[in-house]
# Entry
Amino acid sequence: MNILITGVAGFIGYHIAKKILKNNNKVIGIDNINDYYDVNLKKNRIKELKKNKKFFFYKVDIIQYKKLNSIIKNNQIKIIIHLAAQAGVRYSIKNPQTYFKSNLEGFFNILETSRYNKIKHLIYASTSSVYGDTKKFPLSETESTDRPLSFYAATKKSNEIMAHSYSYIYKLPCTGVRFFTVYGPFGRPDMALFKFTKNIIKNNPIELYNKGNHLRDFTYIDDIVDGIYSLINKQSKKTIPYEIFNIGNGTPKKLLDYLKYIEKNLNKKSKIKRLPLQVGDILKTHSNINKLKKYTGYNPKTNIDNGIKKFIEWFKDYYKVN
Ligand SMILES: NC(=O)c1ccc[n+]([C@@H]2O[C@H](COP(=O)([O-])OP(=O)(O)OC[C@H]3O[C@@H](n4cnc5c(N)ncnc54)[C@H](O)[C@@H]3O)[C@@H](O)[C@H]2O)c1
# Structure
């Protein structure tokens, strides 16, 4: 079955593509390779993926409906893993327009092309940010998500609602996956692990918000990939074929402890510049992963000590530092 991955040059897209290709399936990937962060990182991910002859890449923006639709039609796509989006909470305060374009208009195009091409399963990325300031930990899929604290979260929550209407009206099987702070090799330069590692190595100060007191359910990339992969052939068979799942680790850690693991693995202390909590930032995330565990047998395997170690090994190798 031909699978389309949108945002394939991105952190998660690259890793899920690798896993699907490893299992001998064809992957059609699209990405607009925008410059939100280092474009070389995206190009190098595509270069890696192209080593496999079953990978086909199109540089396309999901805003371009006609192009998107003809790729899906011509490649007889039946499964879509939709990851292309403007990610990041903080940047959505600065530049909400790009979130509106990619995450709302772009998502609408994904839904439209999915129904016209009779897609058998649309899996799309949502986020733990939809839980806003909900404090009923661990956060279950049944908790209220009506109070987003950032425009990023608002667009992702909108995706979940838009998908529901398509599942209901057109019987389009849709599965939303709420990722909890993903980290690992080939990760995003705008996220804490990447920024901290880079600055500690360069002897630059790191910016630590809220004294590092917020808690995150850091989830290693391989676990996220296993979670997505386990869902590919598990579209809902309900009258309204619609599901939402958390994909997290289930054990939140303080950002300050996360930093300590980075220092331990780099064998070097950080210089800290303290900053207040940022607008839109959430104090704590903690996923309840029981729903996915029951549904597919999902079982996250990597703790932060091992996960950070693997990231730092990748970082040193990629940037040729000792
Ligand atoms: N990484 C995390 O911790 C995390 C957490 C929750 C949710 N998510 C979601 O998971 C998905 C993947 O995240 P990621 O961390 O891999 O981010 P990423 O930024 O590395 O990947 C997203 C990719 O989508 C591409 N893209 C953006 N807008 C596009 C458009 N209009 N048309 C075509 N391509 C476009 C980008 O160029 C990028 O390569 C996103 O939807 C993100 O919101 C990520």
Notes: The mean pLDDT is 97. The longest strand covers residues 121-127. The domain at 3-183+218-248+286-301 is CATH 3.40.50.720 (Rossmann fold). The first helix runs from residue 11 to 22.
